[in-house]
């Protein structure tokens, strides 16, 4: 404070002819010169020090490489596109945020061919569909609190920045890598154990799948169990509709088994996505969140929990509908999304798929299904039961000429069977890396 007071006192005194005043003025000027000299020295030293602190602050707060800044801008723009305004928000115990979005504002209606349209009314169910024993809609973690979305809205799992940043690219977020779903070979590390039918016209598929929480070796791999409804060749024009459960750390940021859907009309290249992450699938249900965690799951040599799924083509409008349990409509894929599936499917598959990234230089230890081989049977191996297809006349029928294939049977295998209770069924899965699967 003395220094400040002295600086402010360094003003020129009034003129005086007094010698005494002249002496005082001279002394005061000397004092001011010393103070000013000291301040100049202080400021000179500070000028070398303060830029360092300034740059450090800037680097910590806002300085990022230009490409990172651009990527964040793209990510945030994409988030604004896919996260629609919410009428209600529900926080799930697993950390998910569920937004209740007005049905007609969901991302599907951003599609030019769906602009200003409304979700369709329920279609005619396939004949022979058993509606007894309807499974509760409370099979997902976000519903355990008793919260639900109001009528007229649909529950959508909110996508956050971290979700997109885990993906290989913004454009690749929510998409499968080109896997070339095949029944005779694999590509890009995708490995399958599936039962399938082909050689006829199929208008849908139905099965019950038991849910597990398989171990996935790293963030860039996944494990899923699903139905595929397929048409087209296995080249550039492959059309698929898919639904089941999956564990995908890259997509969801955790290892919970989650209910999912997928579609593509060009062999996973530029069209389609998981769940509601692009304009495509139209959800009509306000109690099931696609992409949300399933609870409970099955336990080895213990309780088994399965989900029933039905995909079929509406004979009247031609759209492909998804039903959960026995009577709970989830929504539909508009027929205009597809080329070959605009008419019918030429193949149906049931089974498991994993990604083997060989990250440790050997086969992955990512599990398929329960992580146990098919021969261990009920309560130990994974299964599909009551497998059926929909024929040209909208009838559910048993599987004609079911075949099975495992890409690497020493890693994951499959076997099929039939009985009066389960109809057509398969057991499948495995542990991945083991002495026979190096």
Automatic annotation (TrEMBL):
Any single Pfam family the record assigns to this protein:
Neprosin
Cite the PROSITE patterns for this sequence. Answer: NEPROSIN_PEP_CD
Query: Which residue ranges does the record assign to the Neprosin PEP catalytic domain?
Result: 184-438
- Signal peptide boundaries: none
InterPro entries cross-referenced by the UniProt entry: Glutamic_endopeptidase (IPR053168), Neprosin (IPR004314), Neprosin_propep (IPR025521)
The name under which this protein is listed is: Neprosin PEP catalytic domain-containing protein
Recorded source organism is Lupinus luteus (European yellow lupine)
